[in-house]
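Researcher: I'd like a structural prediction for the single chain below. Treat it as a standalone chain; there are no partners to consider.
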Amino acid sequence: MNRRLGKGLDALISSLSVNEDDKIVEIPLAQLRPNPYQPRKNFSEEAIRELAESIREHGVLQPIIVREALRGYEIIAGERRFRASQLLGKATIPAVVRAYDDEQVMEIALIENLQREDLNALEVAAAYQTIMERFSLKQEELAAKVGKSRSHIANFLRLLSLPQEVKDHVSRGTLSMGHARTLAAIKDEARCRELARMAVEKNWSVRELEEAVQNLDRKAKKPRSAARSSRRDPYLEEIERNLREKFKTAVRIRAGRDRGKIEFSYYGQSDLERLLQMLQVMA
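Model: Treating it as a single chain, here is the predicted structure.
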């Protein structure tokens, strides 16, 4: 296919805008069907009901975008408005008919959802991956096009490597994006699945899951460091305890004969930013 870089992405999104020159028609809901390339797998029933109440009071303020199909029309943008109108029992919905090919329809669905909808974390990750492949984009280029940081893109893409069991929890919402990011950093797949199950069963917060990961890491390192730890300066150990309590993370003081260093552990970009902010305040 023709790789649309740079302005091509912007042109696809701008084509979803409705202007004064567009012809708006009322199309029967019975003649509409959802976009077959829609990346969203789940629609919030509560959100659809809230939108339906808004439409009941104010009407459909923004026409949906459709294209002609063999039978009726396919929705290019506005499936939530379509579903809300169905819920209200409406017969028609205002729409603008445009001509798109199959590849454009898929690309628009991906990009429009990322910019305007609340996909779950795995749907976002899959959409990012698909866009990068379709447009031959690097992470930095995709980040610029969707208005996100490169680390944001990288964090989502890492979720695709999670065990399927963990992905299922994320899709169902029983694990959040924060949980998923913490689990994605665990290389041992069996440990990752086990921690995910514990997080769901015990309803752990992201912080509680991070602490569980830290505890396992400390236990794994304990046999190698037990002898050395027994000879450590009690004064330094007390300082470490105080720092751990203050900064809510693992802290290690490594002392030499005339010099040493203090190490702070962080778990994810947000945790790093939290520590940096605390250290700056104290400076």
